[in-house]
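for the writeup, i need someone to sanity check this before i put it in the appendix. the sequnce is what the collaborator sent (i think, or maybe the updated version? ugh). structure was predicted straight from it, no edits. if anything looks off just tell me and ill rerun, i have time this weekend
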Amino acid sequence: MGAEPRIRVSALLRWNDRVLLCRHEKPGKEYWLLPGGGVNTGESLVDALHRELWEELGIGEEVAVEGPVAIVDSISPVQSFAAKHVVHIIFAGDLGGRSLEAVNSQDAAVRGHRLFGLDDLDDVVLHPPIQRFVQRWRPGDPAVYLGALWAR
């Protein structure tokens, strides 16, 4: 059996009907993530989220978040190089009224950030691939999206 599941928190941050994503690179590939990262032992989900927002975007506790609004379970294929199981817990926040000129990553893994219109998400490599949820979710929606990415 593989390692224990890893918990990752992230934020669906909206700004004027657009979503803020962080660009990451792996050899030969560019992909986009909702800002966020791993939860440390003894750290609450919200504290981890605010820490990650500070590290990746230079913004933190001043961003009010709601949720979780989605939970996505992703498991790597059995034949992959390294077994991986990540539980993504996604919160939401509104960046409206804020200047994004001050958004600045302190995380070396983040290669930039960009606002995407909801219609633009179909052409983006987003991890986890939750484009449909992001496109239809609206602030105040009571339902939580529960998704599974079973790659076995």
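The longest helix spans residues 45-57. The longest strand covers residues 65-75.
thx in advance!!
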